[in-house]
User: Fold DUF262 domain-containing protein from Tsukamurella conjunctivitidis.
Amino acid sequence: MTDTHPLNTEISARAREIRTDGYAMSIGELLSLYKDGDIEIHPEFQRIFRWKDEQRTRLIESILLGIPIPPIFVSQRQDGIWDVIDGVQRLSTIFEFAGVYRDENDAIQDGLILGEGEYLKSLKGYMYEPNSNSEGLKHFDEALRRDFKRSKIAFSIVTKESDPDAKYDLFQRLNSGSVLSPQEARNCLMVMLNRQYFLDVAAMSESVDFKDCVPLTDRKEESAYRSELVLRFFCLLDYTGSPTDLSRDFGDYLTDWMRKATANESRPDQKLFYDTFELLNRTLNEDTFKRYNGHRHLGAFSISGFEFIACGVAKNIDKWRDHQDDLKERLRSAWTAPDFKANSGAGVSPRQRMPRFAIYGPKFFGE
Assistant:
């Protein structure tokens, strides 16, 4: 007979850490909660979750027809406010349609104008109710607005008695394999963990010197890759381990590091970041992270070059600040440095490369 006692014990212990409750709420109640500030949908997420107009129309159509929609996952904070973990676009669409949605600057947005529905072709051009900018547009009558407000939305609630990390773990599980890029998911976590840290990272990712040094493809730009590079920069600087392989995938390592780095309202060292990329931009501009063949820089942005060089220069910023010509030669010689060549290129994964470059980069630029 199989002994399942250890498994039963483990399940019981973990289940106590995550306390959940289920609740069905009318849209009218939901609108009141939102207006009173009792539910936090993190408008910064709107940069990340990109719904098209037809998706938003489809949601409103589903509500009108009584077609079930997935539950909204929220976490109850200690102050009683609900933090949305999954369902931001569904809620923001409802709020925008009702004309109460506030953006990240706390400005109320114009009400959503619907498109043609899959089943309700006549939805096209409708608004929830008239406003000062809706002259000539169609809007729901009072009876239809009442029906809409009485429609129910299912909520799954992670209660405040749960482990503090439960909502972040749940967010990662719910969004694993989603349309979000790994960094877009991290950005959402950052907003929930430490909004100011997220704003700092966003500002650094858009700085002129950084963008000049790091030319990216449109696809990389759209996947929040710049924000990932900012996090990699600080993750490398923070590494204190040995030059051996990480024990897990680098993406998971970076996410775990970010969760620790954003704790206790901490903030990244923005001055060091800006100083580093101002110096690099002044020295080699867009060639900073492009491979050098002894005569000229070739190819596209190199992530290996970024990790080795950015970390190495940042750790030795005072040494190079006033020696731009010498730095240019050192930057170009980095591509043939034994420690760089041995730990970059095909077949070397980030989990192998990162811990080595966190040590070898500063060593090379400190010599």
Q: What stands out?
A: The first helix runs from residue 5 to 17. The chain has two domains: 6-175, 182-366. Residues 6-175 form one domain.
